[in-house]
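INTERNAL AUDIT FORM
Audit reference: QA-55
Scope: verify that the stored structure record matches its stored sequence.
Auditor: D.O.
Record contents follow.
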Amino acid sequence: MPPPVDKESQKKMIGELLKSADRYIKSAQWTKALEEVDKALAIEQNNMYSMAYKDRIVISLNEEKKKAEGEKVKKLSEDLNT
């Protein structure tokens, strides 16, 4: 999708994409949220709000991954002790 031509249209579209990303974030749908943010970044590569959203999503994904790995280790440890 080519970016809108005028700045005002770009700002509006980025705002809508970030609102959509925020809804996905609130329901922990990280991949979908990241897709919306990437669309916003395709419109304006250095948009600070979009970059902040992306950082937030990546951090949350990493935390979720660490938590899942920790739970897996705990379960394996429990299985070995039983």
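Auditor finding: record pair retrieved intact. The radius of gyration is 18 Å.
Action required: none
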